[in-house]
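Lab notebook, bench 4. The sequencing result for the construct came back, and we need a structural model before the next group meeting so we can plan mutations. Quick request posted to the team channel:

Model the 3D structure of this chain.
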Amino acid sequence: MSELEGLFQGLSDAVVEMDEGRALELALRSINEGVDPYEAIDQGLVHGMMRASQLFEEEEYFIPELLLCSDAMYAGLDVLQPHLRRDQRKARHKVVIGVVEGDTHDIGKNLVKIMLDASGFEVIDLGRDVPPQRFVDAALAEGAGIVALSTLMTTTMDGMAEVVRILERAGLRDRFKVMVGGGPISQAFAQRIGADGYAANAADAVRLAKRLVEATPGEAA
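Done. Here's the predicted structure in token form:
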């Protein structure tokens, strides 16, 4: 393993091991040694977050561990991102995300936000208890390509359907991809309300979002 590969591996390991101090230290070392910050982010920090996501899927890590991994990733990102060249700060696909009105459970939504951000998406987080119209207004204002809806309550699932209905009534449905997720949600429900996809967890949400943008020509890469 070369010294550069070892540095990237160290950044990745720091994220997986939830070592915020080590991630910060190695990010600073990357800058001091003239390492391409984009490569340090992509092959180091993001690689580590993908490994952590896999451990989460395999139930070796749980929500507290994944959140600590994200803290380590962001510690390194805060150092590296200001050093990206202008041509490396490419336009990112935008996702508007939130928990639908009537539900205040947002841990799952927060994990999806972390994973989408780590995977190169620009995430506009509307928070929790978000009225359907606000999703549409934010997607229009931000020029987002995806609207991501979350809920853990059966009583608020119709809020997801209402977002789709608002888009259809306004003649905007073709402009946005709608993805849904949360405890009571299923692929059958997504199909029933006319959503573009369903994700069972944060890793699936990233894979789905990537498929959706790849199927949408003309957006930012």
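The chain has two domains: 3-88, 94-214.
Will bring this to the meeting.
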